């Protein structure tokens, strides 16, 4: 239900289904292709609970939701009645008219083709990486059946890459995905691959870079047989051509026989053209690109490593790192190793080093709580939560992480380290082990560089510092607390802080409410009240930290630093502020008994929502204990919770 509501809000925020041409997702983002970006409500989307941020880059409208993106994507398809295998809409009548740049078109194409298989690509790469490690350490014999079976599991995707890319590329170009698979399967058909081992009939382009022995012909036309296993560019171009051919035949073939005649004629044309023309030219182009990248790298591996390492996280922010993915895969398919993957490997560890520095340095409990999931995600190579949630908003930590990453990238480039399979995060460690040389100098230098990235990111952030939202300077600028002559509750000499009741009603233990987050005390200890009136008053003398835009939740901090969350009802965020009236705003000073929020209790009940209201001490970890009242009913300003310091 949580994902369903978020999906509905996102769908509304991007302008509805009618404004969507297509949508895919990567590790942390929903990537929309909108008809008109101006119809999207960017500010509202950024404020949605569950949305980290919104980016517009590479011709895409990107909604960053973090690690639960796949669940949100499924919910989005369901609530929007959309099909993952088809474009959402082909009607461009409402298109904004803004011409997309060539870079934007390229990024959109690459992300659309590679995003769906990114998880599988990383998973199979991890298997290959661990196999390299196990054989290097002599834990596994390459001749054993165990190795052979695991090697097949790890190699299956990359060996049959054209089949998988045929599906995703054909889908991206608006054709039938299974036709793309058929074209890809023909490229890796084993019998054709085996024909290139015999005596050639003759040789084309003899004495040139493109010298090609001819083993078979098609209707008398020479066929240049090449190994398309693990190839990238040939199938993408073939899928584009295939989508155009299929669209042509769909127009001219009667609907009664279109189902089988359209794929019949498409395959009959596209497969021979791919072998005769597209495949050889695309393969030669791939080899030239690979040689060009290697040439640039060879000019100065040190400088290349500094640039790639330092800018990688910047590219991630705008989603432009997708433009480099094909080059990585080309290197893996043609050179069997890639230096770019190695040079950016330490970037995620520099990022989590910076996150650790923020967590230990900040006094802001919200930043501390954001740091834990961001740190864990970063360990596995997913750095968007760390970037958007912590380091980028604080500015200096992001810069420090880039400096640390650039330093590590330079070391890795200088050492000549490479990755031999596609992997990221901690699972990229085995991917740095050479299948032929095992654990060597390049591997150890990459490990040293990664440790340096983590330590340097942490040290720079911790000692250079940043503007902490809760630092002493900010506290000095805050208004002096007003001493209330008739304060209802004051801390006693025994270091105990009393929290008053913010409403009148029946006391309910947290463990009995129907919300796992509150019931499990994941937000902190406290108590709940089932209200009998529609008033919320201040339970403390202090400051309003946050009034949520939906007015259903209030964050307060008292003069002694106790932080309180009052969450009116369950799932009432879905009311989007209806039936709630706020009488204070962020930063307002309040005293015990001051009216904060009014709500229409009966209307909320009639709308089908539970009204039981948790009152939580969110910084419970800063105290010895939080003890709730034993009374069964409370009135406004009655003693409700005792915080033991």
TrEMBL record:
Active site location: 26 (phosphocysteine intermediate)
CDD domains xrefs: PTS_IIB_glc
Locations listed in the record: Cell membrane
Stored Gene3D superfamilies: Glucose Permease (Domain IIA) (2.70.70.10), Glucose permease domain IIB (3.30.1360.60)
The keyword Transmembrane belongs to this UniProt entry's keyword annotation: yes
Domain PTS EIIB type-1: 4-86
NCBIfam families xrefs: PTBA (TIGR00830), PTS-II-ABC-beta (TIGR01995)
PANTHER family xref list: PHOSPHOTRANSFERASE SYSTEM TRANSPORT PROTEIN, PTS SYSTEM ARBUTIN-, CELLOBIOSE-, AND SALICIN-SPECIFIC EIIBC COMPONENT-RELATED
Name of the featured protein: PTS system beta-glucosides-specific IIC component
Annotated source species: Paenibacillus xylanexedens
